[in-house]
Every structure is written in structure tokens, then in C-alpha cells.
Amino acid sequence: xxxxxxxxxxxxxxxxxxxxxxxxxxxxxxxxxxxxxxxxxxxxxxxxxxxxxxxxxxxxxxxxxxxxxxxxxxxxxxxxxxxxxxxxxxxxxxxxxxxxxxxxxxxxxxxxxxxxxxxxxxxxxxxxxxxxxxxxxxxxxxxxxxxxxxxxxxxxxxxxxxxxxxxxxxxxxxxxxxxxxxxxxxxxxxxxxxxxxxxxxxxxxxxxxxxxxxxxxxxxxxxxxxxxxxxxxxxxxxxxxxxxxxxxxxxxxxxxxxxxxxxxxxxxxxxxxxxxxxxxxxxxxxxxxxxxxxxxxxxxxxxxxxxxxxxxxxxxxxxxxxxxxxxxxxxxxxxxxxxxxxxxxxxxxxxxxxxxxxxxxxxxxxxxxxxxxxxxxxxxxxxxxxxxxxxxxxxxxxxxxxxxxxxxxxxxxxxxxxxxxxxxxxxxxxxxxxxxxxxxxxxxxxxxxxxxxxxxxxxxxxxxxxxxxxxxxxxxxxxxxxxxxxxxxxxxxxxxxxxxxxxxxxxxxxxxxxxxxxxxxxxxxxxxxxxxxxxxxxxxxxxxxxxxxxxxxxxxxxxxxxxxxxxxxxxxxxxxxxxxxxxxxxxxxxxxxxxxxxxxxxxxxxxxxxxxxxxxxxxxxxxxxxxxxxxxxxxxxxxxxxxxxxxxxxxxxx
Length: 654
Prior knowledge:
Blueprint: H1 26-40, E1 46-53, H2 58-62, E2 73-80, E3 86-92, E4 97-104, H3 113-124, H4 127-135, E5 145-151, E6 165-172, E7 184-193, E8 198-204, H5 224-227, E9 247-250, E10 253-256, E11 259-266, E12 270-280, E13 283-299, E14 311-312, H6 314-318, E15 338-345, E16 351-373, E17 378-395, E18 398-407, E19 412-420, E20 424-426, E21 436-440, E22 443-446, E23 448-458, E24 466-474, E25 487-494, E26 511-520, E27 526-532, H7 546-550, E28 558-562, H8 584-588, E29 599-609, E30 619-630
Antiparallel strand pairs: 1-2, 2-3, 3-4, 5-6, 6-7, 7-8, 9-10, 10-11, 11-12, 12-13, 13-14, 13-23, 15-16, 16-17, 17-18, 18-19, 19-30, 20-22, 21-22, 23-29, 24-25, 24-26, 26-27, 27-30, 28-29
């Protein structure tokens, strides 16, 4: 992450002292890898899944001063090539030592990009794969084949036990820039041992019958060099800020309007926001200690052939941060931009810098408030702006564009924009089956969901909060409701973890408030923020199925846990080939108290997606998200003091 200030001294490793929450620098990652190489003595067999900052205790962060900076500690997951299991531990950069190391024999590390790229050539060279292509009349197209490895989950298949494996789906290109997702080679698959690069099995669902689904040959492309013909461009629409940006950035610390926060990043979650607070009348009030998208899963809804295996945890099995894009001004981002670089460790522990990985800019947010008084013939109107913090990751065929919005009125919004290319399969033209839509002749897009889990470590006006559930209740007709118009909000505290496994209820317009029982507003009520579930999903994967066990967090839209530093990810620390015995269900089974304490909210939300022909060959952005809104946090409208202004640059008459 780019650092411009706050470097005040050197620690024992000769590295600059940074804020305790700042991500590791390239130099720090290099130093951690050197320490790990010395410690494990595996030579060229050392493989790195994770090297990230170990976030210090909250009290350490809250009382941080540069002159007494805490030790920089890195957390790591490493493994030895060809050996099952993962070593999890900590490195103290000050002492240049591994200070803890635990072997997790059942754990499987995430899949790395460099491993994925090795798999394609391995499969193409396999004689059984070539024979399968020959039977289909495709052997001459061998070099055009595109081998897409998918993580496998755990379906208790004997050949996969005790191994680290991926399952491959096959597409092909007609020419070098062709969109290969338009040409699925249906029913042909390869099972690969990632550790040994051994092709364990070639699966051909049509070998016995010989009745192959033909590969669709129609080109369906999106690359501008292939398309060439475009509509006439519209008139220019420029975003201009002649006075520059309204935010101030020092290192990873951002101040904008009444807000301030820190920008973070790691290889698994990607973009993280820390210590979000709002200052009013000279008093800074904390709201969120840490906010991230901690997991996501894409369960596909077809049992046909091998497609039932598509149940990918794109964060926990691949890493949103490791797959993040380098953003382009004028395309990904508009306006006066501040970019943050990010640094992640590659498969061999070397730092990989993703330039312009995080974009910070302002956008017009429309009308903030307005009123016309007909008696005085006067109008008061204020326009709003918002601060945008964004990052985009490419996970296989999909792009996930992650946006945090801070609004002047105290709202925090999160929006996920899903774009890219739908996952395709082959079908006989006109016969897509009931589990998908034929998006082009011979191409089916199967029904699926994109389920995200936001981890919201709250601190509304301080570290101890209580979550309450708010339901709107309509009274029955009777003496208390003689006209049939009476309804009210019933607020119920959630006192334990099991009680706090909650679902959105449209019939009650349900939302949840995060209150501080120790702070009151000017009408004597606890100050609070509310979580509005804008994109709740009904899960359709059975919770006791092999896929459902691993992603049980999706079974509820809200979970609440007491803060524990090691409870980071809702599906558990090690998701790849997991069985579902770690994560939110295991933690909340303890039924710990969550009343008037340091709480973490886990909100499941997402996109329910039956593909349309309009989603192909590239899907326009589909949005989902949630809102954290002040609910008694302020004594009155917090933007009543917005100055009256008029944007003359936008004013013209025709």
C-alpha cells in the first residue's frame, strides 16, 4: 500500500515503522519470506499461500502513537510442495523470528494463479485427454483448448481424499482473441492433483453413448479489436473538479468532510476499511472498527453431469486481493483520483505490487434535501456528494467490483457490481433443460447465486454494542385499531449467538439496529446505526448437502458474534476442500453472550441469477449490497449545515 507519511523510525529489521493497521510493504514481505526460508529449510519446495499483517489488539491500535509503535507482526500460511497440510503462524519482523507455527494436517491452501497456469499444458499433454478429443473430432484443435480449473469442495470421492485437487472444465477458442466461453466442450473434464501436477482422471460423460453435444461455433466476442463496428459516440460527459479533490490522504489515512478512516488490503479479502469515524462539533465518534467482505460463494443449481461441483468460494479458495486489477483512469475510475497500490505475496513469497489497485474519488450523489415553503415562496435545496473507495477483482470468468460509499449524512453503503462473462455450458440447440437459460444457440447459462458475507466489526460510539431486531407489526382490527391503520415498530434485543441467527422478513420490513446502551442522544435513547438488508437472498443449496455444509453462512442473512481475533472468515480459516466444520456455525454453537459487548455482525447478501440472453457475451453490471444508516446516532439531520451552493459549471439553457 502506498505510504507517504508516518514513517518515523526503523525497527530491528531496518524497516520503516508504520501504522499498526497498514498492510505489509514489499520490503516487509521479502523479509518475512527470508525468515520463513531460514526457519523451514525446505529450499525450492517452499510455497506461500498467505503473508499478511497480523492486526494488533484493538487497544493497541486505539492508543497508538508513532513514537511507541508496536511490533510489526506478519501472519503466514505456508506449505511444502508435495506435502499435504499447511503451517500457520506468526513472524515478528522486529526480532526477525518465527514466533509461532502450527501444522494443520487437514488444511488445504488456496489455489494460486501460477498453479492454475501450469495445469492447462499438463492436461493438453495427457494422452487420455487427447484421445477424448479424438473421439469428438477435436484433436486437431488441441492447442485451442482452454482448461479452466475449479476448486472441488468435498464430495467424499475416494480418489480425491488426502490430495489437493482441482476439477477442470473445458472450452476452446476459434482464434487467439476469441471469447472461449462461447465454445464449451460439454461433458469433458480432467481431475488434477495440484501438488504433483498429475492428471488423476479424465471424465467424459458421453464416451459410452458417443452422442456428443456439438461445440457451438458461432463467434460471440467483446474485444474491441474483434468487434470493430461500434455505435456513434454520445456527447462528452466530463467529471470536472477545478478546485481539486475534497479529501486529504496521509499514508493510508483518509479525511473527507466529517469522515475519517484507514484504507487496508490483504490477499484474501482485498479491500478493508478500518476505524471509520464521524466528527461533529469537534467530537470524533467511532462507528465501525473494521469492514470487509470476508467470504463469497457461488453455488450453481444444476445436478447435470459434473456441473453440480460448481460451488466456488472465490475469496477463501482463490483470494479477492490476489486477483485484484490494476485500475485505469478514465475507464474504471472518473474524476480527481487518488490511487493506492497494494502488495501481495506470490506463490514463492515474493512481493507482487498491484499498481493503482484501490481508487478513491468523489461522486455527485444527487439531491440531499429540499423544501419549498409556499407561504414565503422560498426554496431551500442542497445537493449531496459521496466518497467512493473501490477495488475490482477478476475471478475466472467474473469481475467483482467492490464499492464502499461514505455519504455526508452519515450513511455507509456497500455495493458489489458483478460483471464479466457468465459461466457457460453446452446444450443441444433448443434444449437447455430446466436448470438454465439458452443464451445463444447451443449455449446454456445455469441458474446460480452469488452470496457475499460482509464482516462488520462495529463500535457505535464505543466498543460495547447491542444488536436489536426491528419488526413492523400491524395490529389486528379491534378496539386498539378500530380503523385498521395502526402499525408500529417492535424492537427486540438479540442477547445470544443462537438467538442472533436471523433472516430478513419482508412481511415485517425487518432491519437491525446496532445500539450503544452506554450512550444516549438528546431524547434519551441509545445511539445507534441500523443495518438495512437491501439484497437478501433465499438460499436454495440444502444446508446438509456437501456444498451446503461448507457455506452454511448463507443460510441466514444475519449472524452476530462476540469479537474474537481468530474468527476472521465465516466459512472458516481453510476453505479449500473443507468439510464445513469451521466457521460461523461452529463458533455460534457456543451461544455466547452478545449483549453490551464488542460485537461483529456478519451479513449475507447477494445476487440471484438466472442468466438472460442479454447477459451474453458479456454481462452488464448487476448490483447488490447493503446500507449502514444512522438511527438515533445524530440529534437531528446531520447535513442541515450544508452550505447553499449552485454548480454553475453544469448550468446551461437551450
